[in-house]
Structure prediction request, 516 residues.
Amino acid sequence: MLLLTCPNCGLTVEETELAPGGEAHLTRFGPASGDAEFEAYLFLRDNAKGVHFERWCHAYGCGKWFLAARDTATLQVFGTYSAQTKEPPAEILESIAKGRAT
Amino acid sequence: MRRFSAFAIAREALRHHEGWGRTWAKRPPKARYDVVIVGAGGHGLATAHYLGKNFGITNVAILEKGWLGGGNTGRNTTIIRSNYLQDPSAALYEKARSLYETMSQDLNYNVMFSPRGVIMLAQTHHEVRGYKRTAHANSLQGVQTEWIGPERVKELCPIMNIEGPRYPVLGGLWQARGGTARHDAVAWAYARACTDMGMDILQTCEVTGIRRDGGRVTGVETNLGEIGCDKLGIVVAGHSGVLAEMAGFRLPLESVALQALVSEPIKPCMDVVVMANTVHGYMSQSDKGEMVIGGGTDGYNNYTQRGSFHHIEETLRALVETFPMISRLKMLRQWGGIVDVTGDRSPILSKTPVEGVFINCGWGTGGFKAIPGSGWGMAELMAKGHSPLTEAFGLERFREGRFIDESVAAGVAH
Prediction:
């Protein structure tokens, strides 16, 4: 059972309380963009085997979205952070570097 | 290749079964092949087989990171059906189903195809309308299915409780010619036929890089050394994204874990396949007597071949309500496979941005049923550059908005 800490309410909860929302840090493209950009935004995914940045919603809790860094090959969680970020914060990157070294 | 026959059994019985020989040959890799297929699962082996059988291309190697048929080919619930809604899907899956019918004879290998019939239960009024529509679409497509009422469902599967409190059975979509087959035997049969045509099957051969020269593939790097090729077929299901990254392009896929489980063997009690998509569960009985059960996928990306326990709980809860007699059954084993899911729940059989590289992926939760048809179309695509079977399943459909939306037919069980 996957356990994640919601940075919005501070609770560490089981995955049954959460709704997964797919890859994080996607660049949004709207109607004015070209077909290739729109395709990349809507469909193309890194689908990484390894570190994956992803969106989660604390659906059966505070109801708010947050982001998580997780290894899809080991299920190790490196940390969770606010959804109001354009890229993973320094402490998450540090936690990934430390976690993958051990 | 020594043919299997009643005479062969008698002959071997008289000499202590010492003359059977290997099912497929073990040879070291050559430096170069016309075609290299990555992935010796059902789809990869079927592609290689039809390249040889239909197009005479036999200088082919099939590379496999693990062991032959050890991925999703050996992890599925062996259901075969073709009751899809959209025309391109119906054509592809019906081609596959029809090839399954004669596969044992064609490949001289018993794949135990059992056309026992598949019922997809309708347990909401939406599903009733959806399946009636599918039945009409199927009759136009030449796929034999029919809408049946709850009494007929009960007659076909007496152990079912059709008057469940939450989701009573309102009817079903019945495909009498659907059924099951022995999944490992399908891989073994194709492997045997491939090796008989002189193709090389290289197990424990992991691709670590894809060599290109001016936008064209020239070969692959593997742990067994470099192997040159003119054409490369990537048929690796869950790990498609990893191979695509090596070739330098991205795919509209996400890899998630799908789980299945089997019960202890019991006396024959159910001679059809039942799929219940509303409550997330499907079940059939194997020839050994085990109840073979599948359920839903996890929602998050995962490459670990194990999924979340609560999905098993949900599946069993739903099935116990639908089949009360299984409530005391012990489950023998449970496993997971990594499935690659596309946005429209339809597969990708396509050329790629790299010339000479073709990809067959995105079968998501239901690739086993399609193995022969997928191999047939993929072989034609690789040999001739186009195929009527795979035309609609190109990568460009996502950019162009030509989805083959099968989430109704395939949303859960597959």
Notes: Chain B has twelve helices and 18 strands. Chain B touches chain A at residues 239, 241-242, 250-255, 298-304, 308-310, 340, 343, 398-400 (CB under 8 Å). Confidence is low (pLDDT under 50) at residues 410-414 of chain B.
